[in-house]
């Protein structure tokens, strides 16, 4: 009997892995959504995506278990069913953490095997309960060398637990992904590349937020694909991850569906690297693509495309906005495909303008 049971479990494991490999073999045309954006999940055109990330689940600072706020509970519970009404094949992942999450709590969780287990077990349970097909870790960012080591342990234990759960349940294994910094080295700290390669299905490379007007007194693209004079670009990040040993098919390039507005010192000096003296709008100058297009229309703003670094910008009066438009999205997606990457993702779908950028990205990638 024990032998038969073991054979059955082995069969389930093999079938699960086969299903799993078929799943992750698909290219990623991804996008993040979060309820605080004010954009309803039911309004997402999920036909434009293969994967949608629902953000963000929280980490309890005492128990280290995954939680979802009562405010978001209903929308998270219905997310998969909602987006699959338009596209039954779209895969959903529950994203954990985010830029505003307490990085100290994540570091504490990852530091001990018992707290890692609490996190891992609760994440799998929560993903299954809400009908998600994967889990996405957005720890921004590990702050010490020990954090990076512990992250490697966390990913290994997470993968083991996910595989075991799939075997015992007979279900397809959950996808495991992570949103990561532009490059594998952050403030002289190295990501656990070997563990990432072995245990994650892919990483979402956040190739944006390089510059913003609250810190820099000159205009610039916050998401340039190329940087002829340095190492602040999406192509540099992709190359660095590849050189560190991460397979290209585990790299997904981030596309920002938002830009930043600078206040020019001189309205007549309105190019890249023009002197500026702070944000020209609220939220440190951050503006969604729809908002930017409205600004252009209302102010008859001049539009420029810079093919050298691959960025769009516009200006009117003393307002200068760097952003991605259809042309830069096209060139970035073509770059990702030509480099053999797994795909692309957008932050975030709620600020697209009549799905112009999402449609462009899908069209540029092709089948």
From TrEMBL:
PROSITE patterns xref list: GH18_2
Protein name (record): Glycosyl hydrolase family protein with chitinase insertion domain
Cleaved signal peptide residues: 1-25
Keyword Phosphoprotein (UniProt): no
InterPro entries: Chitinase_II/V-like_cat, Chitinase_insertion_sf, GH, Glyco_hydro18_cat, Glycosyl_Hydrlase_18
Hydrolase in keyword set: yes
Keywords in alphabetical order: Hydrolase, Signal
Domain named GH18: residues: 27-367
The organism of origin for this protein: Abeliophyllum distichum
Alphabetized SMART domains for the sequence: Glyco_18
One GO molecular-function entry: hydrolase activity
Pfam families: Glyco_hydro_18
Superkingdom: Eukaryota
Xref: Gene3D superfamilies: 3.10.50.10, Glycosidases
